[in-house]
What does this fold into?
Amino acid sequence: KNIFRFRIALLLLWFFYLILLSFFYPLGGDETGYFYSAKLFAQGEIPILDFWAIQPLGFFIPYAAMARWFSSSFEAMRLISLFSCITVPLLITLLINRHYGRTLAIFTFFIIAFSHWYFYWNIQIIHYSISNLCLFTSIFILFYFRPRTIIFFAAGLTMGWAINARLSLGPSGAVLLILIMTHLGQVKEIPWKERFLKRGLPFVLGGILVSLPTLYVLISDSEAFLFNLLQARMKFRNDTITTFNPEDLDFFKSFFE
It folds into this structure.
């Protein structure tokens, strides 16, 4: 009860702690490459089509928007990640509070909000920040608000963005779609046709809408799309590739000529 009573003051201290830490936290291994890629995107070059990138456009868009319309500094782009770091624990806490009570919600907040590994993987300029924010926003929308068509569409938008920031979240989108069609709300009383039209279809349409930039890249150059997002990763898993033997890097030559 005492913790809840001083929740505003504690949250402000937590905000200040994260803001201060985000500006001085060491660079991640992939962060500089993603930072430079976002700057290129902000200058009008499209990832995959104009330069090599192993993440889809949904990851780069927020950082590129910050670089283009506000500031291209490293600290400014990290503000996007900082927003994710702050928002995700709050969304999960609110959700737990609604369904399981205040005590468990407080424990949940402290477990996530002060987890070093959560902070490490989300404060960087990296795909986890965007994908986690969008994934948990979609879950929050579905399980916090009353089921409605607009809610399913909004959840599809955010889930679609999560997948377009990190393609491996595709199965998570499928799981949410199944839950929407079979478990969420008083769904068993609704005919399957109505479930599809008022639940499944809006969710899928929302996902397709935010996937249009990625689909544009796929249609423009399917070979580069498949290579950047799939084949290059498979080649990197080869032991000779990870040791950076120059003789085994011929497949990269066309991207650096």
